[in-house]
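User: I'm writing a tutorial on reading structure tokens. Could you give me a worked example: one chain, its sequence, then its tokens, then a sentence or two explaining what the tokens reveal?
Assistant: Sure. Here is the example chain.
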Amino acid sequence: MSKTPHQPRLTPKFCFDTTALRDFLRLSRGTVDDTIAQNLNALVTPGIQPFDPQSTASRAPRLSHKRPIEAEACQHFKSKVLFPSWQSRSDVLNYCASVATSPDPNDPEHLLRETEDLKARERLVDERLDPYSGRYFPREARTEALAMLIRNERMVESIIRQRTWGLVGERCENEGVEFANALNAWRKGEIGADLR
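And here are its predicted structure tokens:
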């Protein structure tokens, strides 16, 4: 099983470095969610059933990828790998969302935006001569760009978690529990408390 990346040190600088933020999310998703089938297959103990010579008599395909996994192995995987990975990404997204909604006194383009806004207000516009002269598209503050990135990443995260949880449910019998409810139960210590 792949080792999940450690949660980075949460600072505004990390959040505004969108490359680092996206890389962390991509690596975390890649090691757990994108490889969920391989991770689940690694939980199956090979050789539980002895070899049956009659199994070679017919060419019926075996659905080994649908073979259920022991409840203890599933619980251990969810409590030690899956939920901590999800929680780490949630912590990063929540922290960066709070940074995006906070004032940004260190914005390097703040003065440039103010200058452009002032020039746009002082500009004389005669739309009869130039119908496009009235257009002005202000620069986006980096907090606004970060907020949009966080919204997009949260939507991606929801889609990925639903897909992952569906695959886990096929092999680990999640009994119709939604991924958000299972994650919240794990956070409260109701799931896998003895495995922590």
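What the tokens reveal: Helices lie at 12-16, 18-31, 36-41, 71-100, 110-122, 142-172, 179-188. Residues 71 and 172 are 7 Å apart (CA to CA).
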